[in-house]
Amino acid sequence: MAQRIVKTTYLLGLLFLAAAFVYFFASNWPELGRLTKVSIAASFMVLFYVMSATVFHSHLLSRWLFIFGAITFGVCVALIGQVYNSHADSFLLFFVWLIPTSIFARLTRDRFLVVFSLGLLQLTFWFYYFPSSYHIERGEWTSFFILLFFVIINGIVALFSRPSLLSILAYMAMHSWLFVIFIQGISFEQFRFWPYVYTILFVLFLLYVKKQPYFICTVLFTGMFGIIQYFRFVEQYFGGNGYIFGLVLAVIIVYIGIYGLRWMTKRSNGKVEKFFIVAFQIIVTVVASMIAVGSIMQLLSFWFDAFSPYVLLSICILLFVTPALLWKRQNDVVRYTLLAIGYILGAFSVTEVSLIVMSAYVAVLFLISWRMPAGVRTMTNIAVSLYAAMMMLAEWSDIRFTLFAVFVFYGIIYWVTKHTYERLVFLIFSFTSFLLLTSADLVEMDWTYVVWNVLFLCFVAFVLFFRTNEKEQSIAWLYTFLFLILKYYEWLWSLLHKSMTLAIVGVCLLIVATFVQKRKAISFSVREQKWLPLLVVITLQVVFIAYVTFDKERHIRHGEQIKLQLEPIDPRSLIQGDYVRLQYDISTIEGIDEWGKVQVILRKDDTGVHRFVGIYSVNGKKRNPHLYRESDVLVNGNIYGNTIIYGIETYFVPEKTGLDIQQRARFAYVRVSQSGDALLEKIVEQ
């Protein structure tokens, strides 16, 4: 146990230091200059690699210091984008970060780096298609083929990395991008064929991809596709009168689920398969109950202009909840579906019926649930907690007290129950309610806010240090990451102060871990690394950072300065801190519809502002060279229809200054190199 505690303490210390590192540079502290910031970040990256290879060569920290170095490279690239005002969360940031990280993952075969590389790949795809610092309108076929390319890449990764965790995650990512095509990437007026193609793909996957992790993933996305397609179909062809078919469809789904469950049970031969059987039951239950609830509510609305909440509650109890609780011989899928329908419909009546009646119903459900199987008990107690939370909010409107009461309820069930999956479910719900309790957006910023945050970390430490179940520890690590992400986006407490706090905590944890390890003479087995190929990649990372920084500095010092008119808005980057999004008057050009690389002609007017004159070239082909004068400036960009992106749409600012800059800034000073590349220097009021 001492070895596990020391290892966990080391990892927590490194995690907090990593968060402090990101927070510090995201705060964009104005006291540090451009080169100073980049130099500090690059020095830390090299330091982590050197410490991993030398001082801690035979230590547990060797692996994690190396991983920390790989992460710090991404921070360096993001920092270059911040200090030289490149696009926030640019897909190029994650693509550049991906290249060495994936090479490291290949050379070291480190599981974390493998998964992290896949995550960077998805972020590259996401921010290419959904850029955060500007908006572009793509043609539907263009969007379709871009998303299809993402699907194919993930499919290739899944195929050639089997069998592994990477393969499963890539397979899930492939289905996720297919789903994005279905819900966002196309319009059904132009792509009426796609639902049929999507259905055929699902059938092929279900028939030929039979290993259970992949099969469950396919079933999950099939269910989501079925729900959305069903409601779209009914709304389009039947209106309110067609929801009677939903009940029939729900029954069909349940029976398909029953036979699918029997088939999976016959093939099951271990605990891993049992987990996927449970997941399959959940998916079938959710899909069938969602369709059934939608149909029932539409039918009630169609039959009655206004119906009593007591009638709805009676229907829930008599037709769904009571049969599911009492009829013990029925199939599990049928039972869970009836319960889900009853509990979801009951939620519509919670705040409308008498508090006494609802309290009595909740109490009866809670008492009965403890004589039921684990699955029924879990569903019932979740419903009880949600009903109780809705009643407390309606009665007292105190979200802090409500969340704490729900956390205590889930915590007691987690502690009392002995069923493995039930414990995991209520541990997740416990962490979720407690994490919400630490949010400054939901509770008042007073001394209790600090108490809740400290208690949350104590709860995390308790699970990590004193619970031996690996799944429970994984859940605790997940919510630790979520906690740090939540704190990053809280505006009431500055990133600089958060960074200092996390750094102090991280250092203290590392000191404690080192002291305990020496005191107890604890040793860890460490896998040896071949450092020569890794050194080549690290050298290329350093060269890349130095070259890009030198190029940006040369650009900003020797480029021609021009003045542009703008209109800003203010968000926060994923890892680069606060920035102002800039919309220029030269960004939207009426009367054109082009795609690709573009050069535009800008000319200074009498006020000193450079204005758009015309398009000089598109994709290397000159369009209006006769408009160009010797005093004009040619600026490169990428054109999407009538929108031009110049790469200067983001201006990073110190934390909490974005609103003030947004209100005052009217013009931007931009440096343009001889080749036409633009680099944003500053924004001003006049």
TrEMBL record:
UniProt keyword Methyltransferase, yes or no: no
Pfam families: DUF2157, GDYXXLXY
Transmembrane segments: 9-26, 38-57, 64-84, 90-107, 112-129, 141-161, 168-187, 193-209, 214-231, 243-263, 275-300, 306-326, 338-368, 399-417, 424-443, 449-466, 475-493, 499-516, 531-550
Top-rank lineage group of the source organism: Bacteria
Annotated InterPro entries: DUF2157, GDYXXLXY
Keyword ATP-binding: no
Keywords linked to the UniProt accession: Membrane, Transmembrane, Transmembrane helix
DUF2157 domain boundaries: 8-113
This protein's name: Uncharacterized membrane-anchored protein
Organism, scientific name: Anoxybacillus pushchinoensis
